[in-house]
Amino acid sequence: EKQRSLLLESASRFPIPPGVRFSYGTAGFRSDGLILGSTVFRAGVLAALRSIKTGQAIGLMITASHNPIFDNGVKIADPDGGMMTQKWEPFADALANAPDSQHLLDLVVQFAERENIPLSGTQSAEILLGRDTRPTGEPLLEAAKQGINSIIGAVAVDMGILTTPQLHWMVRSRNKGSKASEFDYYAQLSKSFRCLIDLIPENIVKNEGDPKVLVDGANGVGGEKLEELKKMLKGLDIEVRNSGKKGVLNDGVGADYVQKEKVAPLGFGSDDVGLRCASLDGDADRLVYFRVLSASNNIIDLIDGDKILSLFAVFIKEQLGILCRKENGDVLNSLPARLGIVQTAYANGASTDYLKQIGLEVVFTPTGVKYLHKKAAEYDIGIYFEANGHGTIIFSEEFLSLLDARCNELSVSSAGSEHHKAALRLLAISQLINQAVGDALSGLLLVEAVLSNMGWSTERWSQLYVDLPSRQLKVKVADRNAVVTANAETQVVKPPGLQKLIDAETAKYPRGRCFIRPSGTEDIIRVYAEASTQEAADHLAHSVMQLVD
Ligand code: NG1
Ligand code: ZN
Question: Which cofactor does it need (predicted)?
Answer without folding.
Answer: Mg(2+)
